[in-house]
Amino acid sequence: MMKDEKDLRARTKKFARRIIRLYVAPPKNDTVAPVLGKQALRSDTSVGANYREAGRARPKQEFVSKIGDCLKEADETSYWLELLQDENFVPAGRLEPLLNETNELIAILTTIAKRAKGLE
Asked: DSSP string covering 61-112, please?
């Protein structure tokens, strides 16, 4: 496994841990925030899990598919975080770094997908 691949594995795991901490933070007496938080938790933890699976993919098509799954889940995470921010369930200062990380991961995964498809 190359250093960049290990770094991205660690980065997606670290990001998932940040989302886990975010999920346990909103007030549980609110009925909407925990639902949105749980959705973000599910989609974000899938990014790292799918990236790990991509690393074990045999044919190139399977790798491209798994990276596509990572992108889909990262984009979904961005959506849930944006809703949490838009509805003021979590302070913007707490969500902004998470949204930035989500966008960076999307950019990295997009580059990986393009290279794997031979588009770059």
From this structure: HHHHHHHHHHHHHHHHHHHHHHHHHHTTSS-HHHHHHHHHHHHHHHHHHHHH
How confident is residue 8, by pLDDT bands cut at 50, 70 and 90?
A: very high
CB 70 within 8 A of CB 54: yes
Half-sphere exposure of residue 63, counting CA atoms within 13 Å on the CB side? 15
pTM of the model: 0.88
Domain borders along the chain are 3-116
Q: Which fold has domain 3-116?
A: de novo design (two linked rop proteins) (1.20.1440)
